[in-house]
What we know:
The protein is of the alpha+beta class.
Amino acid sequence: MAEKKPRILQNNRDMMWSMIPLVLICLIIAGIASRCEFSPGGPSSGPVPHFDVNASLKYDAGVLGFPVRDPAVPEDWQPNSGSRGVAGSNGGGDVTTVGYITSKGRYLQLSQSEATEEALVPWVAGDLRSPTGVAPVAGDRWVEYAEEGSEPIWVTDFGDVRVLIKGSGTTEEFTELATAVDAAQPLTP
């Protein structure tokens, strides 16, 4: 029977020889699971998920108690998400939200609600913001909420519904969506 090395004679080389098989086993398992990828250029964009924005807004128009609009956005914008929620308790109400990826790869969120502007903005932004300006678009007055380090928000009031746009889009893209919302007629349930 071979004699065991005295503890003093065990060194980093012995530890390295013990670690190599463990690292190889981890790499083999990760390769089999197909969860690892070597990408020297950094991460790449995946496919945009498909979302049927027309069906979602049509459904929401039938179940929510306020007029819902389905704006005609440019054809190269891709709808990718949608949700429904309730904004705040004081002046709050139902909210329907859809999202678009613009032709430049930027995200714009469109929320429509019966909630007041004072309840809707903090619900979407996660904090209380103050208006910083006004953007006149297609005869409507869009109140701007711009804050350093945060995505801008535009809100307008159509009387029985407030419309909010938020996202990483450019001013031109915000204006395009605001114009499309203004031109859209409320959907019939």
